Amino acid sequence: MTALLQGRGLSKRFGAVVATADLDIEVRSGEIHAVIGPNGAGKSTLLSLLSGEIRPDSGRILLDGRDVTRMPVHRRARLGLGRTFQVSSVLASFTVLENVAIAIQARLRSGWRLLKPADTDPELNEPARLVLERLSLLELADRRAAELAHGERRLLELAVTLATKPKFLLLDEPFAGVATGDGERLVRVLDLARREFGLLLVEHDMQAVFRLADRVTVLVQGRCIATGTPTEVRADRAVRAAYLGEPRGGTD
Ligand code: ADP
Ligand code: MG
User: Could you say which ligand is closest to the alpha carbon of residue 38?
Assistant: First the structure.
């Protein structure tokens, strides 16, 4: 299987801090690839390098085999690299259905515009409903975004992002601050999404990672110390010592 998103030898320093050091990563189509590691390991930096928000000091990024290392965020996005939107970009006074319809409209036209609900094309309600249905979120359709609980808003952000039909999604700690019940729904939504997208997920919530991920990369101090299936990674001695906080047992 070919990797749709690849980082090769990615290094990034902030002054004296080495945020990522000669990092290799590959995400395949249809897989959920999780990046875990302690605070400050370089996880968010890696996502920003891949999405184009920051440039690496050295190394290359390939999207679908094409070198995008120097390409700005919006051009990568046009090639199908999506990142969950910030909470602030969900339109608070609009309903969930309207938010999704607007995202579809933005994909069909070019770029985002500020719209009033009256401006949204009613013909987009049907495809918007389909997006929500596929994600088992139809029951939220008529709720205003402003009234949603934190976890529900995360689900909406995901629906809005998926409506823009990315090939790839980069998610930075989607489970942070999400209550257990909504976390379960988020697991289900991501599980459904994997059939259509490659997903790179940075996460602290180990339970979610081990349930969802096809492969896991473990970062410590900007370096990759292990990549493999959840089972392989869980059994890896270096991972247990460095990340899971277990004492080192003998030498490798
Ligand atoms: P993680 O997401 O794994 O917690 P980050 O990628 O946010 O780690 O940070 C990695 C290291 O790089 C940390 O030491 C952090 O302080 C530093 N860092 C990240 N972004 C910046 C920045 N914009 N300016 C200076 N230092 C940064
Ligand atoms: Mg982070």
Answer: 1
Tokens of 171: 């998610």
Ligand 2 mean position, distance from CA 36 (Å): 10
Q: Is the CB of 12 under 6 A from ligand 1?
A: no
- 74-97 residue pLDDT tens: 888 888 887 664 444 678 889 999
Question: Is the pLDDT reported for residue 243 higher than 60?
Answer: yes
Strand partners, 18: 13
Cα dist. 41→6, 172, 216 in Å? Answer: 19, 13, 15
| Region of poorest pLDDT, from 105-109, 135-139, 221-225 | 105-109
Q: What is the pLDDT of residue 136?
A: 83
**Encoded tokens for 216:** 């896991």
Look at the domain 3-89+166-244 and name its fold.
Answer: Rossmann fold (3.40.50)
